[in-house]
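User: Let's play a game. I give you a shape written as tokens, and you guess the letters that built it. Ready? Here's round one.
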């Protein structure tokens, strides 16, 4: 059974229109997305800034409300729970953020910050057990337990991300949504955090939804990858297969931006015209058509549906009948 099943999820935000703010338009941040995650699996979610991936990551764990669709976690639709019931389920799904500093209370020591998560879910019966558990968590993420009485500003960016991971891990979740967790870090530190996440996954059987704009990072950690454009999934596949032979023109352009170590590589950069269009007025037909180098007549009018290609790939593009 899947740990998480997302069925036709939509997140639309109202925005006011006109000088007097009369009338409403909607940002189609997530526009009919379906996928699943198995226990212990890492699903990468990749796309440019503004494509809706962060909103999707937050909607999956109900940090932003969904407009339509179902979010089945262990078979239970968490999008329909009362606030009280949702709070009691939160222990099972956690999030780590791009900027751990903004998610850590600067007035709390590391001990208090991680201990707070234990207290909320009543996971430590007394102070001694709480301290013991925090020490163990700090060791698990590669930090020195003797630094538990320090404040977040006394740590480097990579160490702060480790604290954020320890805090998420404290409540023994089954799923962690990782929202660009390494994009603010130096490349060498990025590798350390990715390896730490992999080790923790092996040790605890965690599942990750790993959100990032960098396909090279996503490929390294993910079992499968979803490529998102303007609120929709345009391609899905097993990680190595998708990166070896991308099908969708958008995936090809993202991959062409990844530096290649092999000097004999023939890969050339595909530059896309313009930015991601406004999700308030998405283009007709294929939402990618104004930027697609392979667009043809019907791309402007017909919306391509996701189709299976072989046993492990799906793509939404008219080039694949
Ligand atoms: Fe490009 Fe057309 Fe395919 Fe869209 S459907 S990605 S516009 S070729």
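Assistant: Ready! My guess for every position:
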């Amino acid at each position: 059974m899947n740990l998480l099943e997302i069925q036709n999820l939509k997140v639309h935000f109202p925005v006011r229109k006109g000088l007097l703010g009369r009338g409403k338009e909607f940002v189609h941040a997530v526009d009919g997305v379906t996928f699943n995650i198995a226990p212990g699996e890492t699903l990468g979610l990749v796309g440019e800034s503004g494509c809706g991936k962060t909103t999707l990551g937050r909607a999956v764990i109900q940090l932003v409300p969904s407009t339509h669709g179902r979010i089945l976690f262990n078979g239970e639709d968490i999008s329909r729970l009362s606030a009280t019931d949702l709070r009691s389920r939160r222990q099972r799904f956690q999030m780590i953020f791009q900027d751990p500093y903004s998610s850590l209370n600067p007035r709390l020591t590391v001990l208090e910050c991680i201990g707070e998560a234990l207290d909320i879910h009543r996971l430590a019966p007394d102070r001694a057990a709480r301290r013991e558990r925090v020490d163990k968590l700090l060791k698990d993420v590669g930090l020195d337990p003797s630094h538990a009485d320090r404040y977040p500003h006394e740590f480097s960016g990579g160490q702060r991300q480790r604290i954020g991971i320890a805090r998420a891990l404290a409540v023994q979740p089954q799923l962690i949504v990782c929202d660009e967790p390494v994009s603010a870090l130096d490349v060498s530190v990025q590798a350390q955090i990715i390896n730490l996440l992999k080790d923790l996954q092996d040790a605890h059987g965690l599942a990750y939804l790993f959100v990032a704009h960098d396909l090279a990072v996503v490929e390294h950690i993910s079992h499968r990858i979803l490529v998102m454009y303007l609120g929709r999934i345009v391609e899905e596949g097993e990680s190595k297969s998708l990166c070896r032979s991308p099908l969708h023109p958008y995936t090809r352009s993202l991959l062409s931006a990844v530096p290649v170590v092999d000097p004999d590589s023939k890969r050339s950069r595909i530059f896309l015209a313009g930015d991601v269009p406004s999700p308030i007025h998405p283009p007709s037909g294929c939402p990618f058509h104004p930027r697609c180098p392979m667009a043809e007549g019907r791309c402007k009018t017909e919306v391509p549906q996701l189709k299976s290609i072989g046993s492990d790939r799906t793509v939404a593009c008219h080039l694949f009948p």
